Amino acid sequence: MTRFVQTSDWQIGMKGGGLGEAGPIVRETRIGSIRNVLKAAQDQNADFVLLCGDIFEHNMVSQEEVKKVIAIFNQYPDMPLYLLPGNHDILGADCVYNRAIFQQVNHLTILRTSDSVEVSGATLYPCTVFSKSATHDLTGTIPIVREVDGIHIGVAHGSLVGKSPIRNWEDTDLPIDPSCVGRTGIDYLALGHWHSYRTFDDVTGTVRIAYSGTHEQTNFDEDTAGQCLLVQIDKKGGAPKIELIKTGQLTWVSREFEMRDSSSLFELKSYFELIKGIDMVRLVLRGELPLESKDQLDNMLEFQTTLHKNFRVKSESLNITVPPQIGVPFAFEDPTLSQTEVHLKQLITKENDPRKKRIILEALIHLQRLAKEVEA
Ligand SMILES: [Mn+2]
Description:
single chain; alpha/beta; Purple Acid Phosphatase, chain A, domain 2; 2 domains; 7 helices; 18 strands; elongated; binds manganese (II) ion
């Protein structure tokens, strides 16, 4: 029997670019969540931990971050760690794992060749990556083990051909042939590279291929991320039992919201109640909103930025509609302001480009707001 934790794509050193002020938080959280992975392995009495690539974002990662990771490794000195470098921490002269500091971690084995490795209860078959643009099946080095006693586990980092929106072999980066399980007779293929958790059946309907996904979600487009897998295989040919263990700390939500009229603001408000505790929020606003509700929307959105670690709004597709009363002149006391208003309104009627129209509207709203403040 063998029982191990599978994890991948820690991407330590990831900039979190585009996440604004949340970038450093995301970076630090990713390191902290590693502890959750190793703790899960210890709590679950795993025989070892299998790290399936992209543990670091790139080989030039700062030594400071490397030290943080190693400090956590060293908190679990009795847990054997087997690490297959991926395409981000790719093997070669610059490889991060060539640094002297890794030689001090006695319970860590870097899988640098495709030679099989005996582990507790099983044999590992690492599929090494030496080129980021590999176009051949990476599992080609796994020998046929159908008649060989013991539990056999393939370890690879890449994309299963035909199992993602990219259908073609030649367009797949780091291709992995899903039929390798049937070809070689291995019991299980542990994969990294995809950030979402995914499993795949063999021809008999038994799950024998799995991506754990990243231990801590990296962006809004990932689903079922933030976990590691506890895999148990009782005997050669036995069905692997896979259990998901939550390791991620940050919560993410992405939502499209269709606005119809000013009452949509109430719906939006109740939605905001629902997502109160969420760390990372992406909101896409579509549909229509009358100009007079724009102020209220802006205030609501501004307040939300104070409640979340990251709150991003895409509103390019939200059409701000101009009510008929916009034609009624606003009672400005200053004639220059009145003239500016008339001018902006003329521009709006003439403008056909919705994006430009919005900018003019924004200007008009600011002008009216300003006038109100002056008068108050
Ligand atoms: Mn990768």
